[in-house]
Design a protein that fits this description.
The radius of gyration is 19 Å and the shape is globular. It is 17% helix and 33% strand. The protein has 3 domains: 74 residues, no CATH class; 45 residues, no CATH class; 95 residues, no CATH class. The chain is α+β, with helices and mostly antiparallel strands.
């Protein structure tokens, strides 16, 4: 789950224009890709055409996009093409990097020291589509209070924050991921997450979710539990009554090959 951290007005339109992704002064992006960018995540893979990249004129380039905040507060558009060589962060051992690259584990939790000397707990994943490592600060992961109406225990919340699998009593399993636009994988195609906002619950419906790590969706993934169905009804009722709204999107960032590690 992700929390929107940027405003559309902050988008670097000139950067989008340089890769021919602007129409009528706005980026040419689908709603899910736009939400992913505004939450600090990545878009799905897309094909960019007729652009200049790295000083070269390129007819077509498959890549993902993300935003990076600069020291002066401006946002800069980052392009994530398919790299031919993999470069891991220095704080990963060769074995750890190989485990992630080989899809042996979904993620690894690491304690690192940033350039300001502060220790941070991060979650490291590998994006096999672009051959890049994705880093998420675990303190910035937005953990739901309820999923499908079921209250998460403190242990479940901590597991979710650390990128581990969480299972509900209705059989729904879910796990945070910075690799997907919606920030979560599940053994179900859809789920309803909610958090407490000013004393009230704020709901978000997630649909078309990717399967859990190393799994595929089956017929059962299309079956909705009673908890899910009731949560959808509660969400629809709150919308009619004008309850609190929150865009549950998760802040994550891609590993920058050129940055200090």
């Amino acid at each position: 789950m992700r929390k929107q951290i940027y405003n559309e007005k902050q988008l670097p339109i000139a950067d989008f224009n340089s890769i021919n992704l602007v129409k009528d002064g706005k980026p040419i992006l689908g709603e899910e890709d736009l939400n992913a960018l505004l939450s600090g995540g990545r878009t799905e893979m897309m094909e960019l055409k007729n652009l200049q990249y790295g000083g070269l004129q390129i007819a077509a380039l498959k890549s993902k996009l993300s935003l990076e905040k600069q020291k002066d507060g401006r946002l800069e558009l980052r392009i994530h093409p398919i790299y031919t060589q993999v470069k891991a962060p220095d704080y990963l051992t060769d074995t750890e990097a190989e485990m992630l690259e080989g899809d042996e584990v979904p993620n690894l939790e690491k304690t690192i020291t940033d350039k300001d000397g502060n220790k941070r707990e991060v979650l490291v994943e590998f994006d096999s589509e672009t051959n890049e490592f994705i880093i998420t600060d675990t303190e910035r992961i937005l953990v739901p209070d309820r999923v499908n109406g079921e209250v998460l225990s403190l242990d479940q919340k901590e597991r979710y924050r650390k990128g581990k699998e969480v299972e509900l009593t209705d059989g729904t399993r879910l796990q945070y991921t910075g690799k997907e636009r919606q920030g979560v994988r599940s053994n179900k195609l859809a789920l309803v997450a909610s958090i407490m906002v000013d004393g009230g619950l704020s709901y978000a419906l997630y649909h078309g979710l990717k399967a859990m790590f190393g799994e595929k969706h089956d017929q059962k993934s299309k079956e909705y539990s009673k908890g899910y169905e009731q949560a959808v009804k509660d969400m629809e009722k709150q919308k009619r009554e004008g309850g609190p709204e929150l865009n549950l999107k998760q802040e994550s960032r891609g590993y920058n090959r050129s940055s200090a590690r």
